Amino acid sequence: MVVINTRSTHSFRSFLPLYTPHRAVSTRPFRAVLTLPSLGGEKGKRAASPAPGAAGLPSGSRTSVPPSASATPRTGARAGPAAGAAPPSAMAALRKKLVVVGAGACGKTSLLVVFSRDHFPEEYVPTVFENYVADVEVDGRRVELALWDTAGQEEHDRLRPLSYPDTDVVLLCFAISSPDSLENVPAKWAPEVRHFCPGVPLVLVGNKKDLRNDAGTRRVLAAWKQEPVRPEAGRDVASRIGAFGYLECSAKTKEGVREVFEMATRAALHARRGKKSGLPKTANRKSPCYSV
């Protein structure tokens, strides 16, 4: 079984008052216990039985817990065990950090909220920093996966690098409904991540898959002589930037959300950090590229 226990931690808005979002977002701490199907053997085959909940995503229970006193999420601040939670002895032994980056309004926060809370946020609120933690057990290996959300707006370009230190895997997101957001991946986001996180694996994620065939979206894009991003275009960019993999998902329908974090967890487990392997920062190690 793959057991995921998610909880929220500090927001950094109070720490960085000069970079306040347009609207405050509630960061009330919570704890939810999610159970996903087994990922299977070495090739990542999943069990045939689907997980309970909409679109294969499990529903979770929630109880309040106090946030950690430090900026880095730790395992010490936990409430009592919820139903189905792993015992304390089975809690995560490895710690991995996942950072989500990409253009503003491309669906980064919705992806995290749906994964951690099984709830789609209908209203868009620009993000500064939001953090969640998922205790993941996959193939007998226990991982505490810290999920870091970031803001994609240009006014936060100087703030965003504060989230990069000690990152183990990066989800580089774009919106399938926005071809411009995909063009920005090799032009801006991949170089930024490679600069601040040398040797760290990237997973390219196409969000808002449900809008690919949406009539309204296609009509708006057609007025600008554009169309929604095709799967082959995403795969091509993933290959160009040397991504570990390429996946598409929809936070609204929950299609593909679980698979994104399964791939990210495996990338974090299997990757060898550049600073640990002794490779230079400019090294470009090729990794397997899985695609939709």
TrEMBL record:
<dbReference type="GO" id="GO:0007264">
    <property type="term" value="P:small GTPase-mediated signal transduction"/>
</dbReference>
<dbReference type="GO" id="GO:0005525">
    <property type="term" value="F:GTP binding"/>
</dbReference>
<dbReference type="GO" id="GO:0003924">
    <property type="term" value="F:GTPase activity"/>
</dbReference>
<keyword id="KW-1003">Cell membrane</keyword>
<keyword id="KW-0472">Membrane</keyword>
<dbReference type="InterPro" id="IPR027417">
    <property type="entry name" value="P-loop_NTPase"/>
</dbReference>
<keyword id="KW-0636">Prenylation</keyword>
<feature type="compositionally biased region" description="Low complexity">
    <location>
        <begin position="47"/>
        <end position="61"/>
    </location>
</feature>
<dbReference type="GO" id="GO:0032154">
    <property type="term" value="C:cleavage furrow"/>
</dbReference>
<keyword id="KW-0488">Methylation</keyword>
<comment type="similarity">
    <text>Belongs to the small GTPase superfamily. Rho family.</text>
</comment>
<protein>
    <recommendedName>
        <fullName>Ras homolog family member C</fullName>
    </recommendedName>
</protein>
<keyword id="KW-0342">GTP-binding</keyword>
<feature type="region of interest" description="Disordered">
    <location>
        <begin position="41"/>
        <end position="86"/>
    </location>
</feature>
<feature type="compositionally biased region" description="Low complexity">
    <location>
        <begin position="71"/>
        <end position="86"/>
    </location>
</feature>
<keyword id="KW-0449">Lipoprotein</keyword>
<dbReference type="InterPro" id="IPR003578">
    <property type="entry name" value="Small_GTPase_Rho"/>
</dbReference>
<dbReference type="InterPro" id="IPR001806">
    <property type="entry name" value="Small_GTPase"/>
</dbReference>
<dbReference type="Pfam" id="PF00071">
    <property type="entry name" value="Ras"/>
</dbReference>
<keyword id="KW-0547">Nucleotide-binding</keyword>
<dbReference type="InterPro" id="IPR005225">
    <property type="entry name" value="Small_GTP-bd"/>
</dbReference>
<feature type="region of interest" description="Disordered">
    <location>
        <begin position="272"/>
        <end position="292"/>
    </location>
</feature>
